[in-house]
Amino acid sequence: MGASWPVFMAYYALVNPFLEEYYWRGCLGGKSKRPVLQDLLFAGYHLLVLGGNLSVLWLAVTFLILCGAAWYWRQISRMTGGLLAAALSHLAADLTVILAIYYKT
Asked: How far apart are alpha carbons 64 and 84 in whole angstroms?
């Protein structure tokens, strides 16, 4: 891993979750208690990044998990009336992903 890895890890874990929550739940969010198109788009967007690293089976599993996460974070935002709780939960998820990648390589 190069010298830029710590900077990437910090951005991915500490900045990106807030930007994603602002976009996906802030700008595109909705008040529905049911899954919506934005939840599917959120999951699909992440598959673009993971596509070259996972088998088709794991991409399908990941898609379902991310659909659930998108719905969950939208519900948190709907119930709290803000994005902070969802963003902090998203931050925890991203942090575990980036640490898993870091320790795997």
From this structure: 24
Measured distance CA(94)–CA(88) in Å, rounded = 10
Cβ neighbour number for residue 1 with a 10 Å cutoff = 10
Tens-place pLDDT, residues 45-93: 999 988 888 899 999 999 999 999 999 999 999 999 999 999 999 999 9
Q: What is the largest CA-CA distance in the chain?
A: 44
Alpha-carbon span 93 to 83, nearest angstrom: 15
Residue 21's H or E segment, with its range, is helix 16-21
Q: What is the mean pLDDT of residues 36-50?
A: 95
Give the domain ranges of the chain. 5-104
